[in-house]
Amino acid sequence: MIYIINDSQDPYFNLASEEYIMNTFHVDEKYLMLWQNQPSIIIGKHQNTIEEINNEFVQENNIAVVRRLSGGGAVYHDLGNLNFTFIVKASDNSLDFDFKKFTEPVITALNRMGIPAEFNSRNDLSIEGKKFSGNAQYIRKGKCLHHGTLLFNTNLDHLEMALRVSSDKIESKGIKSIRSRVTNIYPYIKKTCSIEEFKNLLYDQFCLINEEIQSIYFSENDIKKIEELANSKYRTWEWNYGESPFFTIKKSHRFEFGKVEAWLDVNQGIIRQCKFYGDFFGREDKADIEKLLVGSRYERNDIAFRLRNVQIGSYFHGLNTEQLIKLLIS
Question: Distance between CA 200 and CA 300 in Å, rounded?
């Protein structure tokens, strides 16, 4: 495994660095990166940004908003949070998102430090029933990127204020607020330590769990290319916000695997625009389905005909064609 030492705290650079590694580093190697961001909200690839953030609070507190490559929900980062990224060769024979494969070494490392961490639900890690880590994956061109948060000593009040969580998600979790279902790791550590010391302890545990780890830094050329990508993509309004869609119909449902929203502009019975949002995961680009449905009559048979040869689960992991049709026309 290759450990990439990245001391940047710039969320735009750090998100760009993940894509750069995916696009340019050798596919047969395994990569690990531990990194931090200045206060920021990291939006899931498929989310409608303005629906996920408390825009007034974000602007007043100079919180960066950056969209990532992977699906899933929005997360809050600050310097009390530590992020981890694994990038490995993707499995060729599975469409599944295997979160346990990547979170097990994290749980093992934390358990060895005396922290009672465990895997909880589809992509969360928890301590005594409270979430301290959210995880997401992106699979493309033979590589799998898995990244997650570790709330070490995050400002949980800012976390709650910065994010807007829909009432259906709160109800589905049986909780009253974000604040009541999250925790920091720090109270569970047996001896006082800084987040930098925690990062080093975590790295030491990874060394015990994994085969030999080689440490590297980004080269000057790597940094130049990452900055170019950050400027052309991750620092742009188009990537992070995009246009709010015009719609006449909005459909939404929270499934076991996550929330799917369909925003449709239907005129004279024809779908003129179609956008999907949510905290779901998918291997393929949802834009394929959006384009496929434009021009369809807004009725079951025509929609079903257009989707007849599509493996819907590749775009919305856990969803089938009938469920999507029902969502669109119910």
Answer: 56
DSSP 232: I
Residue 91's pLDDT is what? Answer: 73
Q: How many helices (H) and strands (E) does the chain have?
A: 12, 14
**pLDDT beyond 50 at 232:** yes
Q: What is the domain class of 249-329 according to CATH?
A: alpha beta
- In sequence order, what DSSP letters do the residues of 65-90 get, joined into one string? EEE-SS-S--EEE-TTEEEEEEEEEP
User: pLDDT, tens digit, for every residue of 98-140?
Assistant: 788 888 888 998 998 889 999 887 788 999 999 999 999 998 8
Domain with CATH 3.30.930.10 in the chain: 2-240
Write the burial class of residue 52 (CB in 10 Å: 0-12 exposed, 13-18 middle, 19+ buried). buried
> Which amino acid belongs to residue 192?
T
For residues 15, 20, 23, 26, the Cα torsion angle rounded to the nearest 10 degrees is -120
Beta carbons of 182 and 130 less than 8 angstroms apart: yes
CA distances from 251 to 199, 248, 254, 275, 327 (A): 43, 10, 11, 11, 6
CA 273 to chain centre: 26
Amino acid identity, position 143 = K
Which neighbouring-strand residues pair with 136?
A: 147
- 2-240 to CATH, choices 2.130.10.10, 3.90.79.10, 3.40.50.1970, 3.30.930.10: 3.30.930.10
Cα(260)–Cα(251) distance, rounded to whole angstroms?
8
